[in-house]
Amino acid sequence: MKQATRPLTTNIADPVAATSTSRTRTTVALASDVLFANDSATLNGKAQSALRAVADKINAHGTGVVMIDGYTDSVDSDAHNQALSEARAQSVRTALTPLVTNTGVTFQTAGHGEQDPVADNGTAQGRQLNRRVTVSFATEGDK
Fold first, then answer.
1. Which of 1, 15, 51, 122 has the smallest C-beta neighbourhood within 10 Å, fewest atoms?
2. Reported pTM
């Protein structure tokens, strides 16, 4: 019987951006309250430094498609949450694109609404964790 192996991953928790890395992939989960006002897809003043840090990671190690995924909590309707998550992902893409100078990198966005929660939507703390935008990209290990 062949044994299954899992890639080694590290997770760095941060109130602004939690980063998960493996040899071939990096994912940065940005807290929505760092990027947006409540129920808004317009980037706030704190967003620029957080996105600059993500762009620096992409410029240093990124390759291929950068995937930007928006998520919400379960407050409001499914349709509202879906539209908000899509708009937030697009806002991050619009701001991140000129900051990334790594040639050959392309961007895709997706909104997932309240799908794929990372915490319990029954608590304020859980809802806050579920409101996020993730930016993931292949690293040079995939080249």
1. 1
2. 0.86
